[in-house]
Amino acid sequence: MYLWTAMLPVVVVHGGAGHIPKERAELSTIGVKEAARTGYAILQKGGSAMDAVVEAVALMENNPGFNAGQGSVLNVKGEVEMDAMVMDGRTLDSGAVSAVRRIANPVQLARLVMEKTKHLCLTAEGASKFARSMGVPEVPEESLITDYAKMRWKKNLQPDANPVECQMGKMGTVGAVAVDKDGNIACATSTGGMINKMEGRVGDTPCVGCGGYADNNIGAVSPTGHGEAIMKVTLSRLVLFHMEQGKTPEEASDLALTYMKERVDGLGGVVVVDPKGTWTAWFNSLQMSWAAAQQGELHYGLYRGEHFVEPVQEKI
């Protein structure tokens, strides 16, 4: 038995990169901690890495403080269109949905695409038809729209508004990576996309190698940041490429994010794990809410260089 098995299981989650307003920062931190605890509890009971990442992300989709599920940003018409993906590192199977509407938990629908179809991604109305065939209930669009999202939508309709800058100024995409007790690895990512985006715009999240990647032989990545920049450098696969060359998750993340900044002027962050359970939450934006659970400890932070630790089990 290898010594590093004591490092497993592990789950790492993020709640988006950028500059999170003070009044929402605490909500974001509470949200990612709760998601990490939920994922870790599943892993501790012998659940799979896929179960853990999907449940952790679904919990954040249900939290109106994040740009995913309930709380998603609005497109230029004031509507919600969401993207999500999952990937199984054991088989390299993946499932995704893009520009999907009226679904409370797109990440769960993405998993169904992976498990119940021969395809990797379903989009828009096709994804909705598939959801109905799987018995996934549609929810009223109003239930996904928060007052905060409406306020930001109106603000960004102004001619001088900069949606990319505004996007980096708020909580964004959510994601998770995990390794279970059997050494299997998975990732999941979900987002409402970019504020005031064109109708039908799809970002990095549902694209394999951009919005996530998982391979039992190397590790897993879930990113956050400006989707177009992430796509240009295939950020998730780029991180894992550096890990294949022998870099640690931290070194690989730093190299990939530095390249994205220098090459396409993109900011963002990643959560990364390797097969041994070594993990990092790395970002070059001002903030990224993140949390990790491993060996009975809950790690979390928001600002660069910030790293708090407490027991996973909350004191009663």
From TrEMBL:
GO terms, molecular function: asparaginase activity; beta-aspartyl-peptidase activity
Segment forming the signal sequence: none
EC number: 3.4.19.5, 3.5.1.1
Residues holding substrate: 201-204, 224-227
Top-rank EC class of the record's enzyme: hydrolase
One GO BP: L-asparagine catabolic process via L-aspartate
Annotated keywords: Autocatalytic cleavage, Hydrolase, Protease
Catalytic activity: Cleavage of a beta-linked Asp residue from the N-terminus of a polypeptide; L-asparagine + H2O = L-aspartate + NH4(+)
Cleavage (site feature) positions: 172-173
InterPro entries with a match to the protein in the record: ASRGL1_meta, Peptidase_T2
Pfam families: Asparaginase_2
Gene Ontology CC: cytoplasm
Residues forming the catalytic site: 173
Family indicated by similarity: Belongs to the Ntn-hydrolase family.
Name used for this protein in its record: Isoaspartyl peptidase/L-asparaginase
UniProt source species: Cyprinus carpio (Common carp)
